[in-house]
Write a structure and sequence with these properties.
450 residues, alpha/beta, Rossmann fold, Helicase, Ruva Protein, domain 3, five-stranded parallel β-sheet, globular
């Protein structure tokens, strides 16, 4: 089996020697360059598994090398070596696609962890089959872009901030980033920051030593330690009190934590993901969320759209949710009537995908065993729903005619997005090809479908 090959780029002979000795002892071959020109030449001559580059080089900045590596036919993991405390450069490097960073003076144990994680992305693990489209459902352009971004983010250690409304699927996105990453064989630990009492937060996050406070009858590991080697997901991070925000910032920057009552800090190796439905920018502005922590967790921003912005995905989601709730195969699966589906397509969904699941679960308990009808959905009439319903005028036609127009619009959108390919459009709508052809005939759309 061939040894992994790492490119080391640094103009200081002592640093190059230290890195070479460390990696050689890990059974990793090394090749060195003193500047960007030399590094680019080697990258074009040999196939490397990893690149370690200093930020400050004689002929330019290490960021230039990060950019160059992203243009290669098969980009390799690249980690930057930064001056101590220069977090701005490290964050910028990760925004550009760097795998991770290590600060000077280089801590060898931290370096070994970084190298091992990076090399997991090379070789056989890089061929890991991607299945995000079967988990994060939807063939709308925006969902295709999100799945592509998840695949890219999985190849990095950069902290990701996942924004989006409640119920839109932020935790699912976080789990997929973890499952696609080199950390997938370790734990994914999710914390709802709003569900932990403030007085217990420090102990829950960082652990505590026996006797450190009343009730601490034994040592306890915190959630950071539970996620060791894996991914820590901080949901509703906006709910953290300012006192804990300071400690969290230090833990992220130093990659070390101090359990309550302990005199020693403990090194940690985690990937940090965070999310909230609140507007962190506004919270930074009003002083309720630290600006330095915001920039540290928001290295990469991934926005999950609300369901109302991708109505074309609703039929596929309905089909998937009904299958999950009933455990039935497709021929035996309950289905929605055309009018019920049209009603869902025009509904605002303030609770997003989670609300859709609740609506369908309730409908299964009410329907008569044939089709799920509008009445079975029992859709709430909120301000958004009323506003959308005002478009219906009984004097202009029946409710069925009105719902038919909505259904026609959804089908037209799906056909346009799939270049009028009926098979692909049916798949996007969660329909069989036969069912789509029936609807096209019923709606007198056959001549418009290409």
């Amino acid at each position: 089996m061939n040894k992994p090959l790492t490119l080391i780029v640094d103009d200081e002979p002592d640093i190059r020697e230290l890195l070479e000795i460390t990696l050689n002892r890990m059974n990793i071959q090394t090749c060195c360059a003193e500047n960007i020109v030399g590094a680019k030449a080697l990258l074009q001559q040999k196939s490397f598994d990893l690149c370690l580059t200093d930020m400050k080089l004689p002929d330019g900045n290490g960021l230039e090398l990060v950019d160059f590596i992203q243009t290669l036919p098969v980009p390799l993991p690249v980690a930057v070596i930064t001056a101590h405390g220069n977090m701005e450069s490290a964050i910028l490097a990760m925004k550009k696609g760097a795998f991770d960073f290590v600060s000077k003076p280089v801590d060898l144990s931290t370096l070994r962890l970084l190298v091992n994680n990076a090399l997991k992305l090379s070789g056989a693990s890089s061929a890991k089959e991607r299945r995000t489209r079967h988990t994060l459902l939807g063939e709308s352009l925006i969902m295709q872009e999100i799945r592509a971004k998840i695949d890219k983010l999985a190849r990095s250690q950069a902290p990701v901030y996942i924004s989006g409304e409640s119920g839109s699927g932020k935790e699912l996105v976080a789990k997929l980033i973890h499952q696609q990453s080199s950390r997938s064989d370790h734990a994914f630990v999710a914390i709802n920051c709003g569900a932990i009492p403030h007085e217990l937060m420090e102990s829950e996050f960082f652990g505590h030593k026996k006797g450190s406070f009343t009730g601490a009858i034994s040592d306890k590991k915190g959630l950071f330690q539970a996620a060791e080697g894996g991914t820590l997901f901080l949901d509703e991070v906006a709910d953290l009190p300012l006192s804990l925000q300071v400690k969290l910032l230090r833990a992220i920057q130093e990659k070390r934590i101090r359990p309550v009552g302990d005199q020693q800090e403990i090194p940690i190796d985690i990937r940090l993901l965070s999310a909230t439905h609140r507007n962190l920018t506004d919270m930074v502005r009003d002083g309720s969320f630290r600006q330095d922590l915001y920039y540290r967790i928001n290295v990469i921003d991934l926005h999950v759209p609300p369901l109302r912005e991708r109505p074309g995905d609703i039929p596929a989601l309905v089909d998937h949710i009904l299958a999950k709730l009933t455990g039935a195969n497709k021929p035996d699966r309950p289905s929605l009537s055309a009018s019920a589906l049209a009603a869902l397509l025009r509904y605002h969904f303030p609770g997003n995908v989670r609300e859709l699941e609740n609506i369908l679960e309730r409908a299964l308990a009410l329907y008569d065993g044939n089709h799920i009808e509008i009445d079975d959905l029992n859709l709430p009439i909120d301000a958004h729903h009323v506003a959308k319903s005002q478009d219906f005028d009984p004097e202009l036609g029946s409710l069925e005619d009105h719902l038919g127009k909505i259904e026609r619009k959804a089908i037209t959108i799906a056909l346009e997005e799939n270049q009028w390919d009926k098979t692909a459009a049916a798949k996007q709508l969660g329909l069989s090809s036969r069912s789509l052809r029936y609807r096209l005939r019923k709606l007198d759309m056959e001549d418009l479908s290409g």
